[in-house]
Batch of 2 targets.
Target 1
Amino acid sequence: MRRSAGAATTTGSRVEYITAQDNFAGVQFADHDGDPPVYVVSVAPDSGAYSKGVHDGDVVVTLDGEDVRRKRHSEVAAVLHDVRTQKILGLERQIAVSAADANSETEGAR
């Protein structure tokens, strides 16, 4: 985790798994000029993905259990647009944790 300068919070990340039947309609994905990773650019507020907690800036790390961190947008999109199956998307997001919470996590791990 990275500690914010002059603040009582640290920044870390966690992966959340989202299941969708609608192939993530209402979610716009992109990459960095063709380079991985694929991330969420926007989420329509009236979409199922929004109600399930998909956020702008989430990074796609797994798709149906496969690590896709090194895949290009076109490769991930081809799987996402296959309407025959339900998709399980692993999304990594940055989180802010108070210093007290970070310390309690460290103590609990000992």
Target 2
Amino acid sequence: MNELNIMGYTWNIEFREKRHVGATGLMDIDRQVIYIASDVSYEQQITAVLHEIVEAINFKCELGLAHNEIQALASGLFSAVRPNWTSLNTLDWNIKNAQVD
């Protein structure tokens, strides 16, 4: 099962054909489910997941972000995370294993 923890809440990730999702990604706040289109590119799927994460944060924190602002944040996150994935994993390991003098 695919799950994400977003601000202390577990969200299930379900993959479905785009015609069943109605978009590249969609969230059901009541069920805490994020639907991602299975028949789009990897980049579109990751961007959709990031978009729905920002949507969940926006909802939980009552930020009132407009949809275009959420889309811009998701695209910006993707452009920062995707090319730096290995560096982020290394940084995560280094932080977890840091020795304090």
